[in-house]
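Lab notebook, page 48
Experiment: co-folding of the full assembly
Goal: obtain a model of how the components sit together before planning crosslinking
Operator: M.T.
Materials (sequences as entered):
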Amino acid sequence: VPRRVVFVTYPRITALDLVGPHEVFTAAAEVARRTGVEHDAYAVSIAAAEAGPVRTSRGPAIVADRSLSSLRGAIDTLVVVGGEGAHDAVHDARLVDWIRRTAPRCRRIASVCTGSFLLAAAGVLDGRRATTHWASCDRLASQFPRVRVESDPIFVEDGDVWTSAGVTAGMDLALALVEADLGREVALVTRATLCCSSSVRAGRPSSVRSSARSSPNAIRCASCSARSRSIPTATTASSCSRSASR
Amino acid sequence: VPRRVVFVTYPRITALDLVGPHEVFTAAAEVARRTGVEHDAYAVSIAAAEAGPVRTSRGPAIVADRSLSSLRGAIDTLVVVGGEGAHDAVHDARLVDWIRRTAPRCRRIASVCTGSFLLAAAGVLDGRRATTHWASCDRLASQFPRVRVESDPIFVEDGDVWTSAGVTAGMDLALALVEADLGREVALVTRATLCCSSSVRAGRPSSVRSSARSSPNAIRCASCSARSRSIPTATTASSCSRSASR
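Observation: model returned without errors.
Model output:
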């Protein structure tokens, strides 16, 4: 049975908050299947008040495949995405109430960027450590004084609740969830698939290309001409040796 | 008059190839407006054979706002996105022919990831240096021997044609185009908006937060508790001081 991952959306989300982590989960499922780790790791869906196109703040409209009210049963991972619209959405009683009622049947709950405001409005972050986009940390703390806001981490894990910093940090959070579920190797290969931010923290011996070839299980980010030795989920970014060519 | 940016899509693109660079252009337009650099920097649209939802290989369906045949007149930047579907799309004579015929009325042409296969099929890359996703560089070179494939750079600029490495490298390419159009400051603030991959290459003095406050024009990535001094478009990633909190 695949882990059921549900993205929660609303009008004027940031498109990249949704698509980045979505790509991480679905790419990880492909990697896990291909490498024999797990055949059917994730079933990912996008929920909104109504199924159909969701308007994003500055990106393209993205199609939600189901309505929130149609979701029954247990959820493995609930991911509330962020965006300009989050500050209006905290006043959407139906949405906030849905999150509050649904939280107990989720194994874990996550937010990307200002999605944390919705978790806070639903009381999910009461007494917990959490983060959000750097430009919104002060606002989260003053609007929801029960939340222990941390402005430095790229993501914060407090029990079963994970919150990430701005936009692309959602991909780092998703990679950390993948690592927790499927192990470091799958997470590393997933990151390399979505190269180059995937990149690498290790040194890059000149023999990497040939040694990677002779050792097919070696995890390599060819963009960086380097082999991945450690998974950089704890920092967004790492030193990529690729440079621009002009 | 805004610069007209057109993303070219087809079935089974990689959603992130499209949404990442799309977010960069639209965020940059907001930053340029807010900072008084330019009021209306970019007009971004997504084109497909027909307007409406475009299927992606493993992401959500994304709504194309116009058909390729409806596009008339000059285009500033044409961006052909990549994905699994690119290898079928090179055999789509209508699409390839559209790119070939449209190229002369574009100021510049770009591709993300395996979008380079479509530029190559249209002859746009003949005799040019170009790159693609690391896992597809060999295939690009063998399938299109007139293309001078470079597997190391994160993106390649050859005259008016820019090609990027895999998936997230498209964001780096877009940031480089923004820098060329609107300058380094706008590109840096745009990157910080899409934090944390935005991050920073500079050191992080403990006084950064207060000094940034006293100097409102200072570009700061608060996620990294550091001030941005150099724009990291030449590498995907840079050293972000944020770490995970568990």
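Interpretation: Residues 15-34 of chain B form the longest helix (20 residues).
Next step: discuss with group before ordering constructs.
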